[in-house]
Amino acid sequence: MQFKKILVPIDFSHFSKKALDSAVELAQCCKGKIFLLHVEEDIFCMRRIHKIHPPLEEVCDKIHDDLIVEKKKHLEKFKQYVPSDLLEGAILREGHPFVEIVKFAREQCIDLIVMSTRGMSNIKHALLGSTTEKVLRKAECAVFVIRDKKCKFVAP
User: Fold this and answer.
1) φ, ψ of residue 138 in degrees (nearest 5)
2) Which site among 2, 88, 101, 112 is 20 to 30 Å from 50 CA-CA?
3) Which of 144, 96, 75, 156 is nearest to 120 (CA)?
4) What is the pTM of this model?
5) What domain range is 88 assigned to?
6) CATH of the domain at 58
7) What is the average per-residue pLDDT within 9-38?
8) How many Cα neighbours within 13 Å face the side chain of 108?
9) Mean pLDDT in the chain?
10) Rg of the chain on CA atoms, in Å
11) Quick check: 114 and 6 in contact, CB under 8 A?
12) pLDDT tens, 115-140?
């Protein structure tokens, strides 16, 4: 199987850096290209649901704009971990992470998604869900999950 287009969703954690390192190795072996994708959850989605007074809306807009500028800087930093001949793009989107990851993979005809996960207790997993698990279930392409070696299996 050829992996020419590789998507690496990143959250700027050391876990996503490990996934990126693995993706770079794969891309070098397969002569593939890497897309970096960071999805920022829309923390002010309530603005679309409820009417907010104009002064508060301005404050929300300012916080949002500052946050996006900060995330773009982080994205630029992560780009330096990918050799320039392998980097196809670095994209920032807003929305629900798993939805945007799956949508981007479909739009760009991605062959492989490389992402990280951490061990979660069954209770946390049941309550919060997992972006990685949702991507595994919904993506139309292959998904390669990088697990942290420090995570230990704990029987339920």
Assistant:
1) -105, -25
2) 101
3) 156
4) 0.84
5) 5-147
6) 3.40.50.620
7) 94
8) 26
9) 84
10) 17
11) yes
12) 987 633 444 444 344 889 999 999 99
